[in-house]
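Batch 3, record 17
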Amino acid sequence: MTSTLLHPPAAPAPGSEPGPAAGPAGHPVVVLRGVGKTYPNGKAALRDVDLVLDEGEFVFLVGPSGAGKSTVLKLLIRDELATAGEVIVDGRDLARVSRRTVPALRRRIGIVFQDFKLLPARSVRENVAFALEVTGTPRRRIRPAVDQALAVVGLAAQADQLPTTLSGGEQQRTAIARALVHEPRLIIADEPTGNLDPLISWEIIQLLLRINELGVTVLMATHNAEVVTSLRRRVVALEEGRIVRDGVGGYHRED
Amino acid sequence: MSTILAFPRFLAFSIGRALQGIRRNALMSLAATATMVLMLLLLAGFWLLQAGLVAGVAYVEEKVEIVADLRDAPGADAVLVVQSQALAADVAALDQVRSVRFVSKDEALARFRERLRERGQVDLTGYLDRNPLPASLEIRLVDPRAYAPVVELLSSRQEVVDDVVEVQQLIDRLTSVTNVLRTGGIAILVLVGFVVLFIIVNTIRLAVVARREEIEIMRLVGASDAFIRWPFIFEGAIVGLIGSFLSLGVLAIVAPPLGDLMYGFFQVLPLELGSTAREVVVLVIGTGFGVGVVGSWLSVRSYLAG
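Prediction for the assembled complex:
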């Protein structure tokens, strides 16, 4: 594994040769075909969902609470398995991936949450390094990778502080650095600005856009109408488990 | 990834992470270790009590003897002595017999006089024209319950044996008491063992639950199950070993005065301290280490499924 994805020219993965910032024309990172998900309690969270994310895309996933956004994200990291259809991430059919290879798959995906999910007793640097340590990365490779990720999110100066001493935006940037440190092909952000005020939210969005420009596909579930509407990016809208709109536009159909 | 280097590196990683986990969660580690020490002391204490009980019971049982009064035939002493020696040899040859002691008429009289003196009673035996006490055989058994063959043999030699002192009832009563004590001791020990296991495992579970967020993050960033599980198992092992050694330290400090006290209280307790001490060391370390490992494994497992 080389540590240059964030510094173009990059080689994101062996066997895939699109340049950095491959753009919408790249080949798909995520493919959902006729996906349905019914939970054991009988609740149908997703119905017949078709969705393709090409390499280098930046896509918003919107919809009211309970529309199925979280379920889509859980399917992509194989936290849940689809009960119908196919989920293909990074060329692998997740229904056929064995339990043993799930961790390797998750290293190709960076995940960012609304509540940051940082370890409070560890410094910013340790939180980011944690993702590499627990996946068995040799020590000598950890330090440079962490420094690089912290530089991208602009937290080099705060590296030795504890998360609790940081602002919400800085905590979320720490989480983004942790998501980046494995050099993922895809970043999944679940309401990353949900706990942040508008100004800080914009900072986080800018950061995700910059990471996207480096060639990383970004899928962001959000309720932030202002951000979605003003950016004019591809928007996938879910309602009651179905995709009701997919295309460049605003947060609402009429925006 | 080189597979030759992968394992030692994984081991180093796991142990390093385990030590880190103990340090970073000092309070929880301390609580788990303290619980471990208390529970191991409880277990060791009951083990020692049980060992003392068994030894005490064995000691009492050993005191049980069958006494056979021998015939007193004036003038035929020589024949009787030969016959009673033959009987003593036959009895000693039985598997059930630990030892046989021949008590002569003179010795019986001497004992009788001794007893009178102890009680402060007037010794009138000097006025007797002859010794009225019979010679006897005192037979100790390997297992007091297996008296039947011995009594049978003695009863079959009517020409030598005058009377077998009735021990059957005494032995039956004694062994029923000692059996209850033995079984009760084991039952209580097993019960205490279960309580100890349950409490230690529960404490470890709490320590793991307190870190479920950490485990969740590990899963999300792509840590494999082994990388999540083994540090916790090593942590459990380390806490278990530290707890064991602390418990053994405490035992080593309190054992001598406690042993003296027990000795003073029971007068004689033929405890084989060497082997009991070894048993306790194995019990404490085995339980601490084993429960630490198994408890961690079980506790982490519930977060890895799915």
